[in-house]
Design a protein that fits this description.
This protein is α/β, with parallel strands linked by helices. The chain is built from 13 helices and eight strands. It has an eight-stranded mixed β-sheet with strand order 6-5-4-3-2-1-7-8. Strand 2, helix 4 and strand 3 form a beta-alpha-beta unit.
């Protein structure tokens, strides 16, 4: 019996040594600071990517969404999400894409989540709400009490259109005005947050000061109000990685992210407090890992049909060197900056 126990211990030791031997630079950095691998703490957020189709083709898009993408979550997978949400009762269901509105099942899905009394937010690119097939979407969001998180990378046209396409700034302003008109941003039950992305290979500024600038400029020039600003670092993956390489900026940007590593961001990293469900039911630690096709592993099941609260809420996080983006400067997450 003692020999068997010793053999098991030795095998575990070899496995651990093998894991750390093959660590990427980010994981090595975390190990150096914490003396441990990065692990989940809880599942406060269930993030759901309902598909990669989008009406834009933005230069910073990490999942390389386009109007031609066909990946789309079906109802059977949505039912698994509903079942899982019912079991774990997360604080938030965070729906993303692509443009989530282009999934024809979105309204049915959101309505079912709200009937089960889940707190739901949808990440919208704003302009999709102006398409001819979307006449009822804004009122649907209002009537179901969904929080909106709107992509709006800057408050000036010169910094938006080069990233998102000609005419996008004006359409975004039009959508924001329409949302304000039905209560978003002013009614306490209709939250409207905006998301800032840098236009190039640099880090976001301090979130609260930038929020003040946004609030001042948008209200003065367009009469627009909103609740909070979220700053999000561009990850060196997907279409943004292609742009960095085209402009010979990848090495410089990678060095910036590494040299800006902030250990104060580690506790709040979004991967430690959420699970993401991909359009086909595959489980990921975050939307960036989804883009890189790095599903949950390290002993935890990688599909929603095998979800386990006990296992997934304490799982080891799958990391890569792109993770330096979340820990650079003030930190970055789907909820905004992580350190003051």
């Amino acid at each position: 019996m003692r020999r068997a126990c010793k053999d098991v211990t030795e095998r575990r030791k070899v496995i651990r040594q093998s894991q750390w031997k093959n660590m990427n630079d980010f994981e090595s950095k975390v190990q150096e600071i914490t003396r441990s691998c990065l692990k989940a703490c809880d599942i406060g957020t269930l993030q759901v990517n309902v598909g990669f189709r989008c009406n834009h083709q933005c230069t910073h898009c990490h999942i390389q969404a386009t109007p031609e993408r066909t990946e789309m979550m079906d109802w059977a997978t949505m039912q698994h999400v509903l079942d899982t949400a019912r079991k774990i009762q997360p604080k938030l269901i965070d729906i993303t894409g692509g443009a989530p509105e282009l999934n024809p099942l979105l309204q049915r899905f959101v309505r079912s989540l709200r009937e089960n009394r889940h707190n739901v937010q949808v990440r919208t690119n704003l302009t999709v709400l102006l398409q001819p097939t979307m006449e009822t979407m804004m009122n649907f969001y209002r009537d179901t009490g969904v929080k909106l998180v709107a992509s709006f990378p800057c408050y000036t046209k010169k910094n938006v259109d080069p990233v998102r396409g000609d005419g996008v700034f004006e359409k975004s302003i039009e959508a924001l005005n329409s949302l304000n008109a039905i209560g978003y941003g002013s009614d306490p039950s209709l939250k409207l947050d905006l998301v800032y992305n840098p236009a190039g290979a640099f880090l976001p500024p301090e979130q609260s000061s930038l929020e003040s600038d946004y609030r001042k400029e948008l209200e003065a020039n367009f009469g627009i109000v909103f609740n909070n600003l979220i700053t999000l670092t561009n990850m060196p993956i997907g279409r943004f990685l292609q742009l960095l390489r085209q402009q010979n900026q990848y090495r410089e940007y990678d060095r910036l992210l590494r040299e800006s590593f902030n250990p104060k961001t580690l506790d709040g990293l979004m991967c430690r407090h959420q699970v993401e469900v991909g359009w086909d039911g595959t489980l990921y630690d975050c939307d960036f890992n989804l883009a890189l096709q790095l599903p949950i592993s390290c002993g935890a099941p990688s599909h929603i049909t095998d979800f386990s609260l006990a296992t997934h809420s304490s799982r080891r996080i799958v990391t890569g060197n792109h993770c330096f983006g979340c820990t650079a400067g003030y930190g970055s997450s789907c909820g905004g900056a992580l350190a003051g």
